[in-house]
Amino acid sequence: MTREQTISVWQNRVRMRVLSAGRGPALVFLHGAWGLAWDPFLDELAQSFTVYAPEHPGTTPDAHDDIYHLDGLWDLVLCYDELLTALGVDEAVVVGHSFGGMVACELAAAYPRRTRRLALIAPLGFWRDTEPVVNWVMLDPAELSGYVFTDPGGEPAQRLFGPAGPPDVANAARVRLMWAMGATGKFIWPLPDKGLKKRIHRVTAPALVIWGQDDRLVPAVYAEEFTKRLAHARAHTVGGAGHAPHAEQPKEVARVVREFLTTPP
Amino acid sequence: MKISMFHLMPHRELPPDFEKRYASVWVTPPWWELADARRVGQYYNWTLDELLYAANSGFDGVCTNEHHQNAYGFMPSPNIMGAVLAKATNGSNVAIVQMGATLPTSNPPIRVAEEYAMLDCISGGRLVAGLPLGSPMDVNFCYGITPMEHRERYREAFALTLKAWQAREVFAWNGRYYQLANVNLWPRPIQQPHPPVWVPGSGSISTFDFAVDHDVCYCFLSYSGAKAAKSMMQRYWQVVTDKGREANPYRAGFLQLVAVAETDAQAEAKYARHVEYFYHKCLHWPPQLLSPAGNQDYRSLVANVSNPIRRADDLKALRYRDFVEKGYVIAGSPATVRDRLKADVVDGLRVGNLMVLLQIGSMPHELTLENIDLFARTVLPELRPSWDGDGWINHWWPEGLRDAAPRPVPAGVGASQA
To answer: Which of A76, B219, B261, B408 has the most C-beta neighbours closer than 10 Å?
Structure first.
């Protein structure tokens, strides 16, 4: 069973819902640009950790406009510092997907002592002119799923983008998705290189960089950008997965993440 | 009422299969495959000549606007065009209607305040200052402004602009998006306290509120015609009433595509392919470019997803007669055009500031002059007195031009002057 709490940070101007489950050391999961969906991957991790999955500012239901209180990445990172303090988490292992992977890196660069280990799943944060990251906001909405998932109609895709259903259900999912992309887009528009290259050297935590072999959104070559800059990092490629390997191959990704996070240095 | 000629400055010679070969007319169309700089120089000159021809034919104003990276209308700087028009129309009663320079893409945005003040000085106080939000294509996709900040930046820049025109002292602007320690505009506009302000919109409720709260002229720049705009403009007038403002028709502007010929049949023969070119090629872009995630506030997003304001028609499936029948374009004989403009637009939408798009898509220069000439001689004089009997004052028109009807220059002179 997941637990749910809403924590106010930023002088009570930003409310962030946090889903949590499991027991053990603290693990923080930071979701991607399409909103938080609790999934089998998080259930797997919850067998070994106390998993905290916060919603990025603006993506918590009924707190949409809170996003307007943040101006940039620095504000966002400080919000996460306040959130961890409010959760009573001094240090944690941090797992981040896509946009959340970039935020995890920024958090680890700003607060090296808060971050014991990093598992980065197809993280954003860099830009190569020869391998442009796809701007998903420019895509035909009907094609977005095919860029994130190898099986655009599969269960993991439906979990993130909403199931096909009657208009009111589909409309609610559409609003949720659009707003999540807008709220996270605030920190990565028009392209997701916001200076991490200047700060990533501050990260001291050992890192595992995970990429889906068939990532159509952020090419897998970006793993090199992380492994060459992080002092202690290695890469792991997942077959049969696109931009959300933890959603498409939850058992495999949970296993490698758990092994990495629990093996003594 | 006041009637102005609007120009988009489109690419007039896109290939016949353009919409099949390319994904979008905006943001990504390849310049090197589609355009030639010398030929485009000709388009700019034709555009200026056409607007000046209108100015000399009896129109009240000439309108230009700003767009980027597209073949549908590419005046990245409307103020360059406006400067030519201001100089060339000196001595006339024609307003220079900039619809206009886009605040969020100008950094710092007082650049727009400065250039508009220059235009007002050059023209002797004939500027109408359009202050558009800018399209998502231009502002978000071409100029890199974060969609979620687009409206906030606009509103801050709007407040800064009005203050910069009027402040008696040097002031500091400590804004969220713009910080300027010494704002002291040189020059200031001739018109006091500032030139009339028009705010173009596309029907979003938050822009109605903004326009009425700031007491500006709300302009609906529509390509879908009056029928499609009816309920939207009713909501605008409801907001005007709800906020306690008088229902002065000059508080509303509307853009209408118009094509006039001697008869309805001749209009079809002359204009059909240019109208179809406009709707099939010039408006060819994927719908997601119009509403990137974050560009709409949450309230508008919810409203729009459940009840899209976007037209339901598939434009590519429509032909000339459909566009006329559905009111996208008002085309036909002088009597047809006059009657439909009067009934559907002027009275139907309660519009005091009418803009007409008379160069449509691929329409060549000579035919455009013909359209302007016929409209100016046969339609414009009959529409002009529309609101005269009601005693309304057009507060949104340069004060010195309010009561002055521009006099047409004898035929032929206008074009050669240009």
So the answer is: B219
